[in-house]
Batch of 2 targets.
Target 1
Amino acid sequence: MNLAELLRQVRLLEIVTRDLVKDVLAGGYTSVFRGRGLEFSEVRDYRPGDDIRTIDWNVTARMGAPFVKRYVEERELTVLFLVDHSSSEVFGTRVRTKAELAAEVCAALAMTAVKSNDRVGIALFTDRVERFVPPQKGKTHVRRVIRELLSFEPAGVGTDLHAALDFVNRVQRRRAVLFLVSDFVAPPSVYRAALRVAARRHDAIAIQLVDPRERELPDVGLVTLREAETGRWMFADTSAPGVREAFRRRAHAVDRELAGTLRQDGVELIRLETDKSWVGPLLAFFRRREQALRH
């Protein structure tokens, strides 16, 4: 992709997501992602109605009159996207590929975060972490993040979620909102140890990318299939109901295992499909979080 085409795609993606960020996502984002707590602001003289627990006794003793400490909410956050760019991500049979879906939703979330004056960073991985852009603030920086999402050409073909999570656990010491974006084709047992560490340190959210053809086989007779990450070829008789049913059951079993593992480890799951809008599932996630925060 040449520079002119890249800049055109960046601009197009900004236009497509701009109204969503301003009118739909911004309110939900600020409601469910909070800062690290309260930050000291100033000391001022005591006024009737002030909570006596906020009295600063050292200043009060020094000044001979009561003074209280004032705090403000520390809103600033760090948002880090850990995005899978293995070969299986270029698969897509309907509206878009999984990689294109990842770019859309990450761009919208990144622009929403920057609108809230949060820092945004990104790590792109395959069987290794191939690109890392440390978190920073500002519209110029978020455009760089979007450019990386659109222009990145991976060297690796496989997926190593454990290595990617381990990288984040080493480089991101400060607590962050961590979006882990992948199709999660690897068994959870492969990366679970690193996932547990990340879930303890960060507010971790998994975004699972799914294409309909990965869940249901069409009845089109004998087909040849190639596994994108291993290059392995196989044959399947899709005209046989038993073959289609076994494929469907296995796919849904993988989804159940992933959802159960994430739930046990305290990681929330957003499931997005390439042939559907990602806005609804994202807003549903915001609503779930808002309800949980009220209780």
Target 2
Amino acid sequence: VIIADKGYQGLTKLFPNGELPIKKSKKHPLDADDIEHNKTVGAVRIVIEHVNGWLKRFKAVHDRYMGRAKNFWKAMLFVIGHYNYETRNFGVFRG
């Protein structure tokens, strides 16, 4: 299942099992089921966005990797390990 935000409107054409929030309009307000669906999708998306933001602050995915190709995964595993250490030991992110 691919869960995305409203910026990926055409996602369901490529991936039928994709989950998007349901849009409301003036003529068609959201009912209780649609609101609950949007909250569920948003709760999953916020976790992903927090991790992306943390990685960008660490410059892991923000800039182009300029090191040797053979060391790329070592660098990525270091960043992922550092993220896991920070979030589990210091309570930076509670997801």
